[in-house]
Amino acid sequence: MKIIKYPFWIFYRIWFYTLVATPIILMFPFFFISVLKERWYPHFFKLARIWAKFTLIGMGCYWSVKRSESLVKGQSYVFVANHTSMTDIMLMLVAVKDNPFVFIGKKELVKIPIFGFFYKRTSILVDRNSAKSRQAVFIRAQKRIKEGASICIFPEGGVPKESVVLDRFKAGAFRLAINHKIPLVPMTFFDNKKRLSFTFFSGSPGKMRVQVFPAITTNDLTIEETSALSSKVYDLISNSLIDDYRHKKTR
User: Is the Cα dihedral 129, 80, 251, 193 positive or negative?
Assistant: First the structure.
């Protein structure tokens, strides 16, 4: 039975890359102009949200965002979420509307044709094997925060193995939030691995659910409390994933 799905999975994967590239090519002049100056980033962010919606809808996906509280428009935040799929970037862009954020991500994504060109010019790139690169991230992030941007980091530091529900968190996102005294917003992506995981022969159209937890203030936290903040957020996301799994089993 599974062998029947292989042609669909191949087509679905090719279709995904086609959807990723098409709006960028069609709107290339607008994307290009929007990255010429950093202060024009909010315009790029709006275009990126159009790109994200186009890609997800084209894949046959629909999303549901559950919020415990509304975000303050114009407020800078550090957004963190579990990382399971190539669609995580798109869903994050769809879930956050009025708080333009900059991704902190691995430099390897620059190699992706077309996407990499804009990723390099709009994201804060990090070489996780270089202490100097990690230090430079904080300097660039501070500059973007002062300009009014938010920051988005996937704290697992990469996509874990398929068998891992949630990998251990790196400290960077939490240290950044505490150092700059900006609220941190944990988020859980429940279905992205089903929609398009990093396993080639997998994926399907369907729902993509997001849980946005209340913002955690960091004004009174010290850098020594980084680990405690990381553990608190890890437990929030981990428990929500476990509860969702249990709920499915009892239905």
Answer: negative
DSSP, collapsed to helix, strand or coil, labels residue 195 as helix
* Residue matched to tokens 């333009």: 100
Structure confidence by residue, pLDDT tens digits, 51-92: 999 999 999 999 999 998 999 998 999 999 999 998 999 999
Q: Considering the entire predicted model, what is its pTM?
A: 0.93
Residue with tokens 């874990």: 160
Buried b (16+ CB within 10 A) or exposed e, 131-141: eeeeeebbebb
Q: Which parts of the chain are beta strand (E)?
A: 61-67, 78-81, 101-106, 124-126, 150-153, 184-189, 206-212
Q: What is the total residue count of the chain?
A: 251
Query: At how many degrees (to 10) do helices 172-180 and 131-146 cross?
Result: 40
CA 163 to chain centre: 20
- CA distances 182 to 78, 110, 138, 142, Å, are 7, 28, 14, 11
Q: Are strands 184-189 and 206-212 parallel, antiparallel or unpaired?
A: antiparallel
Q: Is the dihedral of CA 160, 111, 116, 27 positive or negative?
A: negative
Residue that is written with structure tokens 């954020």 in the block: 101
- Residue 126's CB is within 10 A of a number of other CB atoms, namely 20
